[in-house]
Design goal:
Shape: globular
Radius of gyration: 28 Å
GO molecular function, one term: ATP hydrolysis activity
Subcellular location: Cytoplasm
Strand order of the largest sheet: 5-6-7-3-8-9
GO biological process, one term: DNA repair
CATH class of the largest domain: Alpha Beta
Enzyme class: hydrolase
EC number: 3.6.1.-
Number of strands: 20
Distance between the termini: 63 Å
Length: 605
């Protein structure tokens, strides 16, 4: 095994109260590709800063190979004092480094080098910072959220570049597909401690669930052992006093372990406030166009979005995703063509800029719009503190100013505000930014199971694959094409070509205009009629759903008996497990029926 270039051992750090890091470890050798994962606020960025030498731990050992070069990508790069991007990037080079490497990276990241730092967008600043840390080809590369504000083409290029690099890589990212492709090992930071899996992030979720299940079993066994020891001390045969005192000491130790156990952090509870059902037709666009000066952003685009559709918009930064989104929702008028909105629409919007938030405003005041301490969620009045808990905020944070929140906490707050508004059409512009894996999974479930309609813009390929029913992507000259399925389905229908492949995007200006128009207007859809298997499933699923619903009702009646647990704890636990399983089965059956019914309606319509 290669000697470590970096080794953190027994790292402890606390800011008062529960330690942020409590015996954390992190080791990287030459060629390692490590994904550092954990909940928002778990200390990932802090641990990375300790590895970079920017923060000193209160306890523990930090070893870096004396000859090893280290480069760290912060979430917020500081470019003060540099005349242009080239000067900023080249300042990261060492005396023996090749300056052409800096030019190569800037070109591939879409930068000329002449841009002034004050004029950069968030995505351009992120690309400049990436060029600066990657140009020296350091021995250790520490990247904190490298994909934030990057479009899909740059993310995919970055994946290939990092996969080829000989640098030891430790990366924090919320982009699951990105982590799957660049990592070969995963370090999980949880409740101040780290666990390592010597496999890439693609294996992480299954492993994490196994670890938590085993931990829960061990805690349950410890609780039963304590009960057994207490029973022995009260009613067991009296042995020598010395022996009894030893067992009493062991019991006290077990009690301390049981009480001191920090359980897994709770999960957010995301539920969108339902509005009355919209009409079947939600949005109809016919040959809409939009130009800004000589730049044509949208040309001849048509689509029909129906109730229950989940539509994703993808494309490079600046392609016009937000412009198209605003036209479809009626916020921006097209230069030509028409947009017709359906009846009874209630729209809730999460915009890309996350709307202007007063940093001095408290969380409670922001969520209630200053109207007391209660909200109405799905027709029920709830105290704002209770609602905040659903999104993992603590009661004492109700009076906390927004400026004190981390990026992930602010993302959760904005989602909480949007989801509190009754809606049957969710419009989400980059909703996954700054969310941790667990919250991202819950948002994914909410979008996939939302009873209304969803239109979202995202660069997260995995999120798109798991949520949307169609994808709208740019072609050349302002043309946009709608594809059935998720992001991977879109790539397959494009022949595997990426959105930035200029050769694939270029079309002859003398081509058949009618064929172009037909391609834009009509998404590639399913067959003209249901297969025999699909028809049989559609007919038989209601009976299965009815049977499972009856089983759930029966199990719920059983556990409603207050004496059941005292009478037979083992049977009670088995009933709870059976109830969870039946509920999961019901959700899967309902989802299958809904998809088939929507498919049938689409074919018959």
């Amino acid at each position: 095994m290669a000697p470590p270039l970096l080794n953190l051992d027994g790292i402890r750090l606390t800011f008062g109260g529960t330690p942020l890091l409590d015996g954390a470890e992190l080791t990287a050798a030459a060629g390692d590709k490590i994904a550092l994962v954990g909940r928002n606020g778990s200390g990932k960025s802090t641990l990375l800063k300790i590895a970079a030498g920017l923060i000193e731990p209160q306890d523990g050992e930090v070893f870096r190979q004396p000859s090893a070069t280290v480069r760290y990508l912060p979430q917020m790069p500081d470019m003060d004092g540099f005349a242009n991007v080239r000067a900023y990037v080249e300042a990261g080079l060492g005396p023996a480094d090749d300056p052409y490497r800096a030019t190569y990276l800037m070109e591939h990241l879409g930068l000329s080098g002449e841009e002034r730092p004050n004029d950069l967008s968030g995505g351009e600043a992120r690309r400049a910072a990436l060029a600066r840390v990657m140009a020296p080809e350091p021995d250790i590369l520490l990247l904190d959220e490298p994909t934030n504000h990057l479009d899909l083409s740059v993310i995919e290029w970055l994946e290939e570049e990092l996969s080829r690099t000989s640098s030891a890589l430790i990366v924090i990212s919320h982009d699951r597909r990105f982590l799957e492709r660049v990592s070969r090992a995963t370090v999980w930071l949880d409740r101040g401690q780290t666990r390592r899996l010597d496999k890439g992030f693609g294996h992480f979720e299954e492993w994490r669930d196994q670890v938590l299940e085993e931990e829960e079993r061990e805690q349950h066994k410890l609780g039963r052992q304590i009960v057994r020891e207490e029973h022995w001390l009260r009613y067991g045969v009296t042995a020598r006093r010395k022996r009894n005192m030893r067992r009493l000491g062991e019991l006290q130790t077990m009690r301390q372990r049981f009480r001191g156990h920090r359980g897994a952090e709770g999960a957010a509870t995301m539920v969108a406030s339902d509005a009355a059902e919209s009409g079947k037709l939600v949005i109809e666009a016919k040959n809409i166009e939009k130009s800004f000066g000589d730049l044509t952003v949208v040309k001849g685009f048509s689509t029909r979005i129906q109730r229950g559709d989940r539509v994703g918009l993808v494309g490079p930064n600046g392609a016009g995703k937000t412009t198209l989104l605003k036209m479809l929702t009626g916020e921006l008028q097209p230069d030509a063509g028409t947009v017709r909105l359906g009846t009874n629409l209630e729209i809730a919007t999460l915009d890309q800029k996350r709307e202007a938030v007063d940093p001095q405003e408290t969380l409670a005041n922001y969520l209630t719009d200053g109207r007391g301490e209660n909200l109405v969620i799905n027709g029920q009045q709830r105290h704002v503190v209770s609602y905040m808990k659903d999104f993992l905020f603590k009661p004492e944070q109700a009076r906390t100013p927004v400026r004190e929140l981390s990026g992930g906490e602010r993302a959760r707050l904005l989602l909480a505000r949007v989801l509190a508004r009754p809606a049957n059409l969710l419009v989400l512009d980059e909703p996954t930014n700054d969310l941790d894996m667990e919250t991202l999974e819950l948002l994914q479930e909410l979008v996939a199971g939302f009873a209304g309609t969803v239109i979202l813009v995202s660069h997260d390929r995995d999120f798109l694959d798991r949520t949307v029913t169609s994808v709208i992507a740019p072609d050349s000259g302002g043309r946009w094409i709608e594809y059935a399925g998720g992001y991977s389905d879109m790539l397959a229908q494009r022949g595997g070509t990426r959105l930035d492949d200029r050769k694939a995007r270029t079309r002859s200006e003398n081509g058949d205009a009618a064929a172009d128009k037909a391609e834009v207007a009509q998404p590639k859809g399913p067959a003209k009629k249901l297969s025999f298997k699909q028809k049989f499933a559609l007919e038989s699923l209601p009976r299965k759903i009815e049977a499972v619903t009856a089983s759930i009702s029966r199990l719920e009646n059983n556990i409603a008996d207050p004496a059941y647990y005292e009478r037979d704890p083992a049977s009670f636990q088995k009933t709870i497990a059976a109830l969870d399983k039946e509920r999961a089965t019901l959700a899967a059956l309902e989802e299958e029926w809904l998809e088939l019914e929507m498919l049938r309606e689409e074919m018959e319509g």
